[in-house]
Amino acid sequence: MNKLRKVFLWGGAVAANQVEGAWNEGNKGPSIADVVTEGAADRPRKITRGVQKNKYYPMHQASDFYHHYKEDIRLLAEMHFKCFRLSIAWTRIFPNGDDKEPNEDGLKFYENVFKECQKYNIEPVVTFSHFEMPYNLVEKYGGWTNRQVIKFYLKFVEVCFSRYENQVHYWMTFNEINNQTDYNSDLSMLADSGILINDLSDKEREEEMYQASHYELVASAKAVQIGHAINPDNQIGCMINMTPQYPYSCKPEDIFQAQKAMQRRYWFADVQTLGKYPRNMEAYFEENRLRQDITDRDRKDLLNGTVDFVGLSYYNSNTIEFREDNPDFKFVGTELNVKNPYLKQTQWGWPVDPLGFRYSLNWLTDHYHKPLFIVENGIGAKDKVESNNSIHDDYRINYLREHIKSMIEAIEQDGVDIIGYTPWGCIDLVSMGTGQMSKRYGFIYVDSDDKGVGSFKRLKKDSFYWYKKVIDSNGKDLF
Ligand code: BG6
C-alpha cells in the first residue's frame, strides 16, 4: 500500500489581494483587485474604471494581514503547519508594472513574512499571479492581450526568484490559469486575463481570452526556465482549477459534451506539463478561425519550460448537459450547468462531492504523470461567534474530513503522488467571487464584516484544534 510522503506538506493557503489589505501602503500601486466592489451570491461584484470615491472595495482592507502577519503566522505555527501558501502582490514589487526599479518596501515586506515562516520551519509556497496584476498594465497595455506584458511579468518573477532564493523553494506561476475559459464572466476576464470588457462580441471575447492565455502560458514557461536557472532546487508548478465536468446522463451527447468541456478547461495543463498544445485545441483554433499570435519561438519556450508539479484547487464537481441549441458541443462556460441530484450544496450553492476529489486526483495523474500539490480545497460558510468567543464550525470539519479521506484513498489505493495539502483561506479572507467576508473558509476567524467593520481580532475556531490533530497524526486522526 502506498503511503503519504514522510514530509507531507500540511498547511493552508491565502492570496495577497484577499488577505493583506493595506492596498496603498508601502508604495503599493493599485491592482485589478482594487477596482472591484463588493457583491453577494445574488449580486455580482462591479468593476470600476480606476478607484472611485463613495464605492466600497473590500480588498482595500481585506483581513489586514499586512499589519497582522506576525500574529497570523504564529497561529499557523500553533497548528503545526508545515507550509503556508501565499501570493506576492505584483503591485507591491512593481507598483505600475512597467517601473524601471522594484519597490524596496514591497520586497522587504515579503522578506519579513518569509523570515517569520522560517522561524517556525514553515515552508512558503508562493504564487506569482493570483488574480492580481497592476491596474496600470490593464489601462495602458490591455492586460495580457499585449505581448509586452510578458516582459514585465518576467522582470517581476526574476526579481523575486533572486531576492528570495534562500527563503522560497516552491513556486506557482499563475493561479487557476484555466478559469479564463469562463469568458462570459467579466470578473473572470479581468482577474485572469487583465481584460476590461467594453463592447466586445462573443467571438472577440473568446479570441482575446485565448490570446491572453497564450501569452500567459509563454510567460509561465519562461518563468520556469528563469527559476530553474537561478536555483535548480526550485520546484515550480502550474496551478489549475480542477472542477470535473460530469455528463448529466449516459446519453452519448451528454457524455461527449462533458468531454468537450474537459478539453476546453484543461488544455492549459497539457501545455504547462507536456510543453505543447493538444491536438484538439489546435483544431479548435483552426476550425473556428480564431486569430492567434503563436510563434515558433513561443513553441520552443513552451517545450523548454514545463513545470515540476501540478498545483490544483478543488471545491466541487460540475454537471453539464447537451442542449439542442448547441449542436456543435461548444463549451460556453457555466451556461450548460445543471444541478446534480445526488449532491448536497453549500450555503453558496456549490455542490459538495468528496468522491469527485478522488476522481480528480486520479484524472490529473493519468493525464499529466506529475506529482500533485493540492493548494486549495474548502467550504465557504457563515460562522457564528458564541458569547465566549468560541466558533463551532462542525460543517467545515465535516467537509474537510471527507475530502482528506478521499485524498488519502487516492494516495493509498490509487497510487497518486501528492506533495501536500493546503486548504483555502486558512485565515478568513474576502471571497473572490462575491467580495464578502462572511463567506468564510478559515480555521482562524477574523473579526470584520462585509463592509470591513470590526476589530480585526483573530479567534480560533473548533476546526483550528481539529486540523492541528490531523497534522500531528499525518492524516490518521480525522475525528
Ligand atoms: C479559487 C481562488 O477560485 O477559489 C480563490 O483561487 C477563491 O482566490 C476561492 O477565493 C474560493 O472562491 P470564492 O469565490 O468563494 O472566494
What does this structure look like?
The protein is an alpha/beta fold. The chain has one domain: TIM Barrel (Alpha-Beta Barrel), CATH 3.20.20.80. 39% of the residues lie in helices and 12% in strands. The chain has helices at 16-19, 65-78, 90-93, 104-119, 135-141, 148-163, 186-193, 202-230, 252-274, 279-287, 296-304, 354-368, 394-414, 462-472, and strands at 9-13, 83-87, 123-129, 170-174, 235-241, 245-247, 309-313, 318-320, 337-338, 372-376, 418-421, 444-446, 458-460. It has an eight-stranded parallel β-barrel with strand order 1-2-3-4-5-7-10-11, surrounded by four helices. Helix 13 links the parallel strand 10 (372-376) and strand 11. Helix 2 (65-78) runs parallel beside helix 4 and helix 6 runs parallel beside helix 8. The radius of gyration is 21 Å and the shape is globular. The model has no long low-confidence stretch (mean pLDDT 96). The structure holds 6-O-phosphono-beta-D-glucopyranose. 6-O-phosphono-beta-D-glucopyranose (BG6) binds at residues 15, 18, 131, 175-176, 241, 313, 376, 380, 424, 431-434, 439.
